[in-house]
Amino acid sequence: MPLASDIAPRFAQTDAPLIGALVERWSPRAYDRDAVVSPDVVDVLLEAARWAPSANNSQPWRFVVAHRGSSEFTAIHDALMGFNQAWADSAAVLIVNIAETTDAEGRERPWATYDLGQAVAHLSVQAQHEGLHTHQMGGFDGEALKAAFSLGETLKVVSVIALGVPGDVDALPDALREREVAPRQRLTLDELVLRSA
What we know:
34% helix, oxidoreductase, Nitroreductase family protein, Nitroreductase-like, alpha+beta, globular
C-alpha cells in the first residue's frame, strides 16, 4: 500500500535554499484515517496563525476547528463540494478559515482576506514543522458553513483546511490518485516577477 509520503519526489525542487518546512510542504489528498491530531497540537498551529502580521494589527482571522468523528466535522464535510467530499473525510481535522471583513464600528477591513491568508500560511508552515500536512480547499458551500456555525454577516468563509498525516494513495478515486502522484510544478521566477529594465 503506497502512502502519500512515499510518492517521490514530493520535496520542492527549489532554485534557492529554503527552510525545510517550505521545501517539504505539499498538499496531499490521501490522509491516514486512523491518525489523530491532538487538540494541543492544533493549538500550536493556531498559535502560529495568531502571530501572523495583519493591517493595523487588526487580526481579522477566525477559525472553526473540528476533529474527525465530531458533529462539527460532519457539518464541514457536508458543506464541501465536488472531489473534496471524496477525500477530506479521511483528514484528522477540518478547519474553516474565516475573515472578519468589518470591524466593531462597522468600518470595512479591506485587507481582511489577505491577512487571513497570512495567518493560514503561518499555520501551514507550523503544521509541516510538526510533521503534519495541510490541504487548502476552495470548493465549499460558504452559506451552508455560515448557517451551520451561526456566523454573522461580518464574517466571510474564505477556505477550508484538511489537516492530518499522509495515508494510502490507493484509497483515492482514480482521477485524484493521478493528481496525487503527479510531479510538482511551479512557474519560474522569471514568469512571476515583473522586473524593471
